[in-house]
Every structure is written in C-alpha cells, then in structure tokens.
Amino acid sequence: MIEKQHLLFELGSEELPPKTLLKLSNALLKGIVNRLNEAELTFTASKAYATPRRLAVFIENLSAAQPDKTVEKRGPAIAAVFSPDGSVSKAALGFAASCGTTFENLERLKTDKGEWLSFTQLVPGQTTEQLIPDIIRQSIAELPIAKRMRWGSFNTEFVRPVHWLVLMYGEQVIDTEILGLASGRTTFGHRFHAPQPISINQPEQYSELLFNSKVIADFEQRKTIIREQAQQAAVAVKGTAHIEDELLEEIAALNEWPVPITGNFDPRFLELPAEVLITTMQTNQKYFPVKNAEGGLLAHFITFSNIVSTRPESIQRGNERVVTPRFVDAEFFWNQDRKKTLAERVDDLAKVVFQEKLGTLAEKSQRVMILAEKIASELNLNTDLAKRAALLAKTDLMTNMVGEFGNLQGTMGRYYALVEGEAPEVAWALEEQYFPKQSGSPTATGQIGQILAIAEKIDTLTGIFSAGLIPTGDKDPYALRRATLGILRTIIENDLPLAINPLIDTALSNFTHHFDKAEIRSLVLDFILERLKSYCLDKGYTTDEFDAVIAVQSSEPLDFMQRLQAVKTFRQLPEAISLAAANKRIRNILKKSEEDTLSAGNLALLVAPEEQALLTAAQQANEAIQPLLEQQDYQGTLARLAELRNVVDAFFDNVMVMCDDLELRASRLALLNLLSEQFLTCADISRLQS
Questions:
Q1: Contact at 8 Å (CB) between 253 and 19?
Q2: β-strand partners of 240
Q3: Structural domain includes residue 87
Q4: What distance in Å separates the CA atoms of residue 211 and residue 66, rounded to the nearest whole number?
Q5: 613 lies in some domain
C-alpha cells in the first residue's frame, strides 16, 4: 500500500448563491480538515476550490490509514477473579469474552491503587477509503446553508440541485454515494465552452484540466484576474476601476471564465451625486464604476461576462440599455426631492414609527436634539448647529432617493442640505451620524458630526434597552453592539473629553414610557463597559490592565484610555512587580480594618525610621503628582509613584503594621491608606498580575 496520496473531492451543482459561495467553500474545507485531524489522518496541505457550479477540496499527501493503536482495557479487581472454590469467577470470564479472548490470555495490571485484570490489544487503524465518505457527508451536513432545497423525487437536500460527484484517492475512485450521487472521476468544464465530460486520472490534474476547459477553479485566482482585467479595461478609457472587495467577491462567484466588457452611459447623468450612480452600478448591475485621476466618475463602467462572445458589442449594448433606465429614475428622484426642503419634511417624521414604545422618528429627533445640545455644551461647541443637525438628521428618510437606495441615507441628506444652503457642518453631520458604518471604518471627522453620531447612538441604545429589547447571544436586531462601539470609538479616537454616565441619565429622562430607570441605567452601563473591554483587548491591552483602571474610572472613555496606557507603561518599569504586590498587600490589610480605625490614625505617632521615611516620601510624592494629575499625566504620575518602591519595601521588611498598640496600629494603617489613595488616583495597580 502506498503510504500517502492526494485526495480530491468535487461536488458539481447548479449555480450556487454568489453571496455565500466563498463562505460555503471555506466551511467545507474547514469541516473536512478538522475531521481529518480528529481521525489522525496526516497531510501536508489543503486547498478549497469554488466556482458557480462546484465546490471542491484537494488534500495533498494524505496518509493511507489511521495509525494502529494499542488499547488497554481494565477488568475486575484480582480479588474478584476467583470464586471461593478456586474456580474462575463469572466476572473474569465475562471480561475475557468482552475482549474477544480467553481468560488465559489476560494480564495483570498493578497500580498504586490496587491490582486488576487487564487486556492489551493492538487495534489497526481504519483506511482512508473507509473514513473519507463519512467525513465528507458530515462536513456537507454542517455547511452554513440558511435554506436547503429538494429536487425531483429525491429526499436529499442541498443549497442547489447537485449533478456530479468526484471522489478520488490517488488514481482510484472511492466508491460511495453522497447526496444521491455515485462517486466517480468525471467532472465538467464551462457550461457553454466545454460542456463535454472530463475524466480525471490523478487529483493533481484537477485545476489544469478545468482551466483548459475554460474554468478557473481557484476563487482567489479568479478575483486577481478580475481585478487586473478591470483595471486594464479602465486604463483603456483613461480611468481607474473603482473596485470594492464585496463586489469583487460577488463577481468572482458569478463567473467561471470572466471576460471584461466596457460600457458607457450618457454623461448628463454625471450631474447626479456620484454615490447614486455608484450604488446603481454596483448594487443593481454588478458593474465596476470608472473614475478619473481626481476621483470623479467617468461615463464608463466595467462589467464581466461568463463567456467569450464573438459579438461582445452586443453584450455591451445590452448592459448599457439596462442601466440607463435606472439612471433616469435616479435623475427623476433627484429633481423631485429638491422641490421640498429637508426642513419641510420634519413634520413628515411624525408619520413614521421608530419603535412602538419609543414613538415616531419625530419624537426621536427631539430626544436627539436634547442630547446633541448637552454634548455640544460640554465640549464648548456651537449648540445651535448641533440642534439643527439633530432636527434634520432623519428627514432624508422621507425622500424618494433614499426610499429607492436605502444605503444612501445620510449621504443624500448631506447633498440635499448643501443644495438648500444649510451650514456645511450641519450637512456633513447628516451623513456622519451613521459613522463608523462598520468595524474599522472611520469615525465622524466633523465636530457637529461627532456630536450627532454620539447623540443618535446614545438615544437608540438607551431607548431599546428601556423597551426591554436587550441583545442576547447572537441576536442584536438593532445593532446595539456596533452602535456602542461607535460611541466609544468616536469619543476616544477624536479626543473628546466626554463622560458617558450623564449622557445616559439625560437620554433615559427623555423617555415617557414606564420602565425601571435605575435598572436600565445599570444594564446600559454594563453593556457599554463590555464593549469598552473588547475594544481595549483588541488594541493589545490585557485583562488585568483593564481591571486595574475600571476599578477607579468607568465613565470617561478618553480619560480611561489615557489611564490604561499609563498602566501599560508602568508595568514595564522594574519597580512594577514589587509595587503591585505591595499594593495588593496594602489593599488586603485595609479591607480587614474598620473604617473608623483608618480615620483615627495619628501620623505624628510614627517614629520608626522606616515608617518616617515612607511618610516623608509619600508626602513628597503627593505634592509632586498633584500638577501631573491636573494635566491628566497619568504616566508621569505612576512613574513618580514608582520611586516609592525602596521605602515601601523597607517598611514592610521592618515594620509590623498590625501591632498590639492600637493607636500605633491605627497610625500605620492611616499611612498605608494615604499610600493606597495616591496610587488609586490613576488605577488600582494591585490588580496587575505578575
């Protein structure tokens, strides 16, 4: 038997859903690889292939069988092996029978807990041919398919009807049945250019055979080719293709043999907002827009055909005919919408319910105005502009354009506001209220936009919580996790000195329905702190660093991050471990002491050299850190306190805090309390782990 050979599995089907093709391919590969590892079948590499009509997995140098295993079974205790008359007990004979052997072949197993009968058996590993069919069946069954379908008279289910199955180990077919198909070595190339059957002799031929039959099986290779061809086509019309990853992935999932086609449209449509044209081309038509060197749109687009046509101009004209009516509609919406200003649409918001308990969009706008005014006031910014932006924030939802292109909410608000002569800060805020739009994307850059983004999200977060719709598990229909992270990022990444707690209190006071404000306030704060912790951990901070800061400050995100960075820097100092341990010791001692004991301490009673040295050093440090704290220089503060290490160590080495003299004990506790409070001005460093 050859020890290692390549494995090829391919499932041919009708056209698979383009938006989930890559997800299905990755899940299939992961499922098969995980099960191969669980079965202890070794291999050197693995690769997934995916096209509109197939999912395939190639495993390189897969071992021919599992390793043999030595299995040791333990039976009854030796004391129970023989009956009183000296004969072998039923328990011993039964154990031998269960092992498929005789009593004479059993062994004795001695341990420190006793002695038992045992049987050692060599269990041969199963062959790869035996294991693979179930591994594949299980992996297919666990694919993330939202809705499976049946076809014909079959009871099998898959995302689309299947038509052929390849399953080979080396040059041999592994005979089995999967999804009602018998395995073989026959695949198929391009539906139109190479529809004839293709026989595969060896798994490693797979990709090349398909390529010769006008199928690029490698998904990433197709993406690369599409990107390069799109740019080449754009250069030919003196432009650059505007390529977004999501659309690139979808086009790769729609084509087995992508062929670029350049189309044109009437330049008059370039007078429309660029985002409208881009959305139409990308979302509705799957076209790549073309831009000039300055980033403006050109009257061209790049689309892809799945065939090499003898008349590509016909495909071009067809695509041009399809996109033109959509542009005409957008042009109509643009002209119609401008007949009514955003301010004139404010009353229309009363007709749209935001949430049953939270009222209409008009009521939400009023609440956001109150929050925006408060935030602007806290930041010493223009409250009138903030309130105006909040008033108009949702009005573009009432326009025809946003009704047709929902993803342009905010963006169209900006365009209409600028056309209507609103302040530029207000216009841009209408778009930036939705920033950051996704993980890692930019936060609002304009000051009014930052205010509106925070106010809008705070209102939604507190409102949905107050309505009892708190996210659980993976369910978060109002995207509150994303909104909360957006609040934190906007504050932190734009250096806004804002406290969260007062904003939550203001937001909760704006609601008129009945709910327990204290309970909801606590739940909202906990929810925010969970997101803050995730944000900090993603930034490379550790759990104990986070815990050290959260113990003393949890309301101001920007200040929190400054303290967190100070703690991270502090723990790199050579004094950090010793001082963290000392602070932990101090905190434990103080916890065991009565409150009145700490306040009764007389520092004048401290006479031992070590305690006098510590008192003097602590008083000097306290004087030195006050100006640093006023400047929020937490790194400087902790660095100055780190200088106390030697006197702290000397104190604990030579002074008994809990002495019998109660007055002296109280004085020493008061000294430790002074020291603890100094460190707590920044963080509770006793929580740092060594």
A1: yes
A2: 291
A3: yes
A4: 34
A5: yes
